[in-house]
Amino acid sequence: MDKKLVERSGYLEKLEMFRDDTNFIKVIMGVRRCGKSTLLDQYIKRLKGLNVREDEILRMNLESAEFDHIEDYHDLKEYVYPKVPKNGRFYIFLDEIQRVKGWEKIANALMVDTEADIYITGSNSQLLSTELSTYLTGRYISIRMLPLSFKEYHELRGNKRDDNEVFEDYMKYGGFPAIDPASGETSVASMLQDLYNSVVYQDVVSRGNIRNTGELERLVKYMMFNIGNPSSLRNISEESSINRSTVERYLNLLEEACIIYKANRFDLRSTALNPTPKYYSVDTGLRNISIGFPSADKGRILENIVYLELLRRGYSVTVGKWDSKEVDFVAEKPTIGREYFQVCYNVYLEETRDRELTPLRLIQDNFPKTVLTMNAGRPSVTKDGIQVKDVVRWLLNEDE
């Protein structure tokens, strides 16, 4: 394998679970440049290793100049249909499908008319709402793709360095596959700025037909600066000096473009929804370039990284409230139930340690409770059963 690539094995395994199941279209959603196209290349390589022939594969990157002429459903149908047999094994890969108007019609038609195994990618989660559900209700598998996990990043950029040193780079520059700290700070900042412009202007400004880009930039900076802070539409509007309805529209567009993620807050006793959710960035490097690489908020960045990792591991993630106390993350998965996580950059001071442990101690159930922190050493357990783990080891799956 090219030394500059890392195999996205977790996503490949998900795709392989549904290989040749032509009852479902596989939909890979994720922010622009997180590695969706490379994932398809890696998956196609695996297929060829299983003796799938080149002429049994149709691969189209719809953002390539090669396919500039394909603008709508009719253009796509005219190009695809002559190449796909009605019977027998065939694989179709349609990359960045959202740029083709009416694409969902041909996805549905191909399922009806052929036995093809279909995979599509997109940079906008809106694909999974109205357009797709109308035509393909119950007939697609959604896979959310994120930039590199720290485990993947360590494999790609570690170079036998100290784990914590590699993690400092990851916190600062994020996990987009193309961002290599070894190229130097100036080069990395330039690449991150280019990436920021690409995701914000192509997937938010262009799609949302936004004319006041200065206002949008102001909101993005506000949201990125305030990752992990409770945020209502009202206080975002007041503090950013942007009309509330405009704030709501921009937030929806940023979420649809997979740039920010919302974690709702719930009362752990009554399950009532709190009106002030928290927001997190899809990538800490993208966040940092937008607000000038602040040096004093590593705690927020660490919390952001843990939130994304829980999503990668298949959890639904919310924030828990218990009276005036808060649990950073309530992570739930149908197969294993619930887990509680507190995230703190360090717990050296007894006051800090007590602050992190108290909300977990208030919860009287038997689900696992964990504090994740830097430089924790070997995992330990408090007298009331709360685990304290080193976050770097946890991210590398070396925390047992």
Automatic annotation (TrEMBL):
Residues covered by the AAA domain: 24-153
Residue ranges constituting the DUF4143 domain according to the UniProt record: 202-335
InterPro entries in UniProt: AAA_14, DUF4143, P-loop_NTPase
PANTHER family in the record: ATPASE (PTHR33295:SF20)
Protein name: ATPase
Organism classification: Archaea, Methanobacteriati, Thermoplasmatota, Thermoplasmata, Methanomassiliicoccales
